From TrEMBL, chains A, B, C, D:
Listed name of the protein: Threonine dehydrogenase-like Zn-dependent dehydrogenase
GO molecular function, one term: zinc ion binding
Cofactor(s) required for function per UniProt: Zn(2+)
Stretches assigned to the Enoyl reductase (ER) domain: 12-347
Keyword line: Metal-binding, Oxidoreductase, Zinc
Similarity annotation: Belongs to the zinc-containing alcohol dehydrogenase family.
Alphabetized SUPFAM superfamilies for the sequence: GroES-like, NAD(P)-binding Rossmann-fold domains
Membrane-spanning intervals of the chain: none
InterPro entries xrefs: ADH-like_C, ADH-like_N, ADH_Zn_CS, ER, GroES-like_sf, NAD(P)-bd_dom_sf
Amino acid sequence: MTDRMRGLALLGQGEVGLVERDIPAAGPGEAVVRTTASLICTSDVHAVRGAVPIPDGRLLGHESVGVVHAIGEGVSSVAVGERVAVNAITPDGTCDYCQRGFTSQCGGPLGAYRYTARKDGNLAEYFHVNDADYNLAPIPDGLADEVAVYACDMLSTGLVGAENADIPIGGTVAVFAQGAVGLSATLGARLLGAGLIIAVEGIPERAALAKRFGADLVLDPAATDPAAEIRALTGGGVDSAIEALGAQATWEGCIRATRAGGTISNIGYHGADGPTLSIPLDAFGLGMAGKKITTDLCPGGRERMTRLMRLLANGRVDPTPMTTHRFPLAEAETAFDIMANKKDNIIKPLITY
Amino acid sequence: MTDRMRGLALLGQGEVGLVERDIPAAGPGEAVVRTTASLICTSDVHAVRGAVPIPDGRLLGHESVGVVHAIGEGVSSVAVGERVAVNAITPDGTCDYCQRGFTSQCGGPLGAYRYTARKDGNLAEYFHVNDADYNLAPIPDGLADEVAVYACDMLSTGLVGAENADIPIGGTVAVFAQGAVGLSATLGARLLGAGLIIAVEGIPERAALAKRFGADLVLDPAATDPAAEIRALTGGGVDSAIEALGAQATWEGCIRATRAGGTISNIGYHGADGPTLSIPLDAFGLGMAGKKITTDLCPGGRERMTRLMRLLANGRVDPTPMTTHRFPLAEAETAFDIMANKKDNIIKPLITY
Amino acid sequence: MTDRMRGLALLGQGEVGLVERDIPAAGPGEAVVRTTASLICTSDVHAVRGAVPIPDGRLLGHESVGVVHAIGEGVSSVAVGERVAVNAITPDGTCDYCQRGFTSQCGGPLGAYRYTARKDGNLAEYFHVNDADYNLAPIPDGLADEVAVYACDMLSTGLVGAENADIPIGGTVAVFAQGAVGLSATLGARLLGAGLIIAVEGIPERAALAKRFGADLVLDPAATDPAAEIRALTGGGVDSAIEALGAQATWEGCIRATRAGGTISNIGYHGADGPTLSIPLDAFGLGMAGKKITTDLCPGGRERMTRLMRLLANGRVDPTPMTTHRFPLAEAETAFDIMANKKDNIIKPLITY
Amino acid sequence: MTDRMRGLALLGQGEVGLVERDIPAAGPGEAVVRTTASLICTSDVHAVRGAVPIPDGRLLGHESVGVVHAIGEGVSSVAVGERVAVNAITPDGTCDYCQRGFTSQCGGPLGAYRYTARKDGNLAEYFHVNDADYNLAPIPDGLADEVAVYACDMLSTGLVGAENADIPIGGTVAVFAQGAVGLSATLGARLLGAGLIIAVEGIPERAALAKRFGADLVLDPAATDPAAEIRALTGGGVDSAIEALGAQATWEGCIRATRAGGTISNIGYHGADGPTLSIPLDAFGLGMAGKKITTDLCPGGRERMTRLMRLLANGRVDPTPMTTHRFPLAEAETAFDIMANKKDNIIKPLITY
């Protein structure tokens, strides 16, 4: 039957596997997309490990692009057959949070994080899109699906880390951790005019990629105290620090590495940090050093996706060196295992259909 | 001799007393002011208790106004004999921090906090002013010294708490604690267009003053969980919360009381909080709820002082109900004791000369 | 028949009259409101005089509140029978302009200005609401309809004039013209912490109302050169000037009255100014004096309406002194004539149903 | 005598020539710099043609770097012998305008524009620096003087044109005119994350340089209506337009090329435009299309110079392809003539010492 599809699902705590189910339907204002390319995210690994309470059988994934398969009543911005990208975060554009501009917090904290968290994810042959006119972004001609898919999460998250960091033109920036999110933040800091970018990363392959993506130097946290080193190198601290891991050590490093009046921009997911995150009061000037902390979750929506894909199409950034591995959907379990266990220097595995 | 003066000094840990010493001199670019009115600050109490490492004999005080007594070479903005106010924080306007706009962090963290912390304070008959052209602000005719003196710290601190809080017009604001700083923040939230102001305070006299200053309601933290109550009253949390005490409980209350995408504006001094300040990760959305934290230290400088005094002169705010006590300088020790021990429902003691 | 209604329509260039027609229907995502209170706007007068190309028979009006009469499929935020306010400007929340935050420009320039301009207005017993979940704002209990109706345009427009003006706390503001929009801007400047508000207005009744609404002084443009007087009073010009009329003279006055680095916030409708608006280059520093010009059109949407009504409900502003006249709908032609010809010192006529 | 020097002076309307005079002295807080590299600016040409009222004999020039020759009393940030750059604009950092952050407007409109306009310029073997601690910026080791000199005006002006343009990440930008300022603005738009840059320029050599500096395409205003073409290419207009010439046609082009809600950033000098600048009201949405206009004058100060030179030192931008010509000071008259008459496709002539 053509109306069945396969996808990668949570089978039970820590277990994943391909399952078969019905292709979703498009209700009013909704769409269904036939997937052409996906990336697996560390957040999928977190989900499988129990970070987000999801039922067994829930499909994983939130970084996918494809072709419009069906549209529901009232959808007017795209037609069946168009190539489209959909952000991991899918706001409705209407709730009070969205009207205030906090679209990732649609309806409440983290509310626009729907794939996997609230409904089936899109590591599957087809996926459902709520509020399609708000969320479906046509992929420009000439931009390959496997490039466009970076706009769904990595670029949106990494770049917003830089956008929120109040980087003065020519200013100094530290990016703590150079996984896929941190590497994307490095791309973002470079894209937004930072004059000096110091990355913090211990894995040599990632450090090399950080330099390729625009870092001026990379500090190994195993070999030095990065915050102290950064303060020494910059005469007091960077203008902006980006937390791209989600750990007490990198968070604290950001606060310590930033000068008075500087900004700490958090895009790390602190689900593994226990109930609290700790601020060192000496480095925080006892609450009076003028430091600012911002936090965000991958902003979505068609308009932003259009701008992110323009950056890709016009050669402003090239995140594809992060695609270290490729697998067809049939091998998604293997891909997930390599990702979950950080084998083989993996950064991002691309799933093809 | 006319070139001796009296002032209130730290005599040793926890001890204060009036001392006599030479009237300071005005070097190039500097000025000396003959004091006419001062307010004692809780920060003076903190200093005496050892929060800031200062030598015995150091004069206390940083909230004073007066008349220009002497100006050094090159000072051009005021003349001897003019009534002037000087902010508690006295930037040089020239260092990199100042050029970036972080004037309170002049030369480094908290660097423009000079009175008491780096030189004699101004709870004294005369006081010294660095970078006089940057810092001396003429007091408008018709504005009494004992009103203008509120611009030196309370208004500047309280109002910046509100200015940094990103209050949308008609938005909702919580102000945690209603001491002099919190009451000033309540004035500020009202002044900047908040549509609903919820104060948190347990002392009845302060709660009453909070309402007089513009709070729509006041929650007693002994009788309720303020953050939970605020979330219930606002359908998810306030747009902005102001931390005006400097304690883990109020800090955490601010984070819990704020909705996703909201701003926590810290103006509390967290010197008594131990080495760290703790963020509850559930209320922080694991670092992804779009919450922002800002911190600041009483912004100074003539231009700001001019605006603050305009607010006073034109009847926009009246902080004088906070002046619960008055003493001549000769009784400053008594005033300090009452302030230090929070006797007699004191809020601010005015010292006259 | 109960499904017919009356409303005030354009009958031909310069002519208006009550007409009867079908009550509109609510399609998917739409609503119909039974009107309880309306205000007539000078923009209605402009429309009748041909400023906006509209067909004969088009209903006028865009400032109305009422009770939900019907909701279309998919509308979930309100129920039939609820009291609601709808802004004059009704964005869809979904187009690229809306996603970027320029909701008044929905789909293109001035695109969310639909009533009268693109469909029937709401000076009628019933009116249609597009994108109802985005635009319908419940009126708080205790807030009268005839007060809430000020949120539909006057407050939203006047306040955004102040919001866009970059008023520093305690700063100086000039508001050029004190018709209903200018008076609302004066309310806004006061609400947002201006330390000195100078209104420019020649009609004594409006000047008096300007003072009541918060202006510190009012200059008569027939008796003085307001810009020169403002520069003299402020030592070089105001921080912010608000253009609330839409005329070359007030526009130029704003540019001349503003100091270097200041902001000119335009909320005037310049439809009668001919094809161009002229900037005096001397006052503009030949394009290098750091002056900024902002323009806006009455921001709409439920979330903003909720904040504006909170200001009304909590006593922050009281625009009702602007309601100089009241008429039942049956006398709407008379009301319109008085408004069109500025008879009897009219400011805003309220229409009741 | 060693205390005499040569420099290029205005000799009378339209006439320039090398003159000899005393090396300036450094008063308190001041410095004197021995020049090592200068660039001639179109503003020098304007000055000679009478745009700024200056006396005969006044030295020209405001783009120079060199070595500290003498420092006055109280100067502490640099020592004699250090290589330094000084911005064309030299604020005092202390006046009300500076304290508010409008440092180019020091003391009043365009007030920090001192070289040539208010005192001798620095197309001379030595030059004077007011407020030396505020304005002297050490040149990093490894950065050549002839590169650093671009920070004095071209980069600061061009980049602020982009900084003020509110470019959303990946957004669309038009830069009208590709002289040295416009080319620098193109560098700035690229540096700040624009996703599409459309330059407008008719001279082939400049168009080629625009592409080299980051423009995606260049429109020839002689061959097309650039604003109409830009609107067509972008589906309604760019997010941001930069006016880099100072002419009614380019100004109007910016307003017409920008979409509703967009920003026009003016860095052109409109001294030749007659008494007024004209805004087309249709493209301005009758004052309601949400368009914003910003204006600025080359921001100065050590801190900004440090960031600009960091961009140069770390290879973020390379403006040196604009150095089309080189002359020793002895040939400055020839250099000026070529610049004034735009001969030989000149963009920037470098003067060496």
